[in-house]
Amino acid sequence: MAGNWKKRGESDEVNFWPAFADMAAATCMMLTIIWLAGAWELSSSKDQVSKLHAEIARLKKLVGKESELVEIIKSLEYELAAQKNETKRLQIALLSSEQDRLELESQLKKLREERPNIEPPNIVLKQDESFIFDSLQAVVPEDFDKLFKEKKRQEVIDALNSPSNIEVIEIIGHTDNKEVGGTSNVDTTLEAVYAGTKNVSSLKFGSNCELGLARAIAVKNMLKEFLKTLKVGEGELTEAGKNRMKNIEYRTYSAAQLFPTDPLLPGRSEDRRIEIRFTRLRKTTED
Q1: What pLDDT shows up at residue 61?
Q2: How does strand 123-126 pair with strand 249-256?
Q3: Strands 123-126 and 273-279: what pairing?
Q4: What value does the mean pLDDT take over residues 135-141?
């Protein structure tokens, strides 16, 4: 055993290669670790870059949408401003229209105050005012004619002088609902009576409808004769009124018992009356 050891100072060289190999291996391992760490960091860096690119793309989209939203908002704001201007214009127009309406109402009121009788009133000859026909008769009694000339003269003059341009006098006979009965000759005699070639007394009535019409015709004849007595002058006819009278038309109707003075109490003596209307012709157009 002692032969295997050499004494200090002997000439054989010391063998250092094993230690060098260990150092080289360690160094290589260190470099490998460093490379792996660098590779991992590079991979991580690429992932971060990719993520950053994705985030940038997302932000760009958001920016694009934001720009689009900004344009939409601007458009809506423009429309809102235009709507506000239109609302203001309509408010001004409405205020102006209201002022015009009030002005027209004021003018109309003034006209009505200045000319209260533009439309002449109807004249109603009532039984309780002593305008009475004999029972079942259509002849105008003498007292009836006299009373009309005394009580209704001015109303007729005012109607003819009215600025409403009277063209037609409508005369409507109203009766009560009491049955007339009897034999009628109205169909064969009425036209001659209306034309004045036969007297109203020649008529025979079979209904209230016929009686009402005959009395209306009798008052029409009385009124025509009365108008012939009117003259132009102060408190009388004007020239315009006289001209209207020359061209006036007469129309007679019967309402029979259809329009009682009190619908809850038909058949009263008050229902027997004559209504005189001063009107204009109602123009119609064919379709």
Answers
A1: 72
A2: unpaired
A3: antiparallel
A4: 87
Give the other-Cβ count within 10 Å of 125's Cβ.
24
Q: Does domain 123-279 have CATH number 3.20.80.10?
A: no
Question: pLDDT confidence of 70, banded at 50, 70, 90?
Answer: confident
Show the 3-state SS of the chain. Answer: CHHHCCCCCCCCCCCCHHHHHHHHHHHHHHHHHHHHHHHHHHHHHHHHHHHHHHHHHHHHHHHHHHHHHHHHHHHHHHHHHHHHHHHHHHHHHHHHHHHHHHHHHHHHHHHHHHCCCCCCCCEEEEHHHCCCCCCCCCCCCHHHHHHHHHHCHHHHHHHHHCCCCCCEEEEEEECCCCCCCCCCCHHHHHHHHHHCCCCHHHCCCCCHHHHHHHHHHHHHHHHHHHHCCCCECCCCECHHHHHHHHCCEEEEEEEECCCCCCCCCCCCHHHCEEEEEEECCCCCCCC
Structure-block tokens of residue 113:
């105050």
Domain boundaries, the chain: 20-116, 123-279
Percent of the chain clearing pLDDT 70 (strictly above): 73
Print burial letters for 75-84: b (CB count within 10 Å at least 16), e (below 16): eeeeeeeeee
Better-predicted residue by pLDDT, 212 or 61: 212
In whole numbers, what is the pLDDT of the chain averaged over residues?
79
Q: What's this model's pTM, rounded to 2 decimal places?
A: 0.56
pLDDT digit string, tens, across residues 12-35: 455 556 666 666 777 777 777 776
Residue with tokens 């290669």: 17
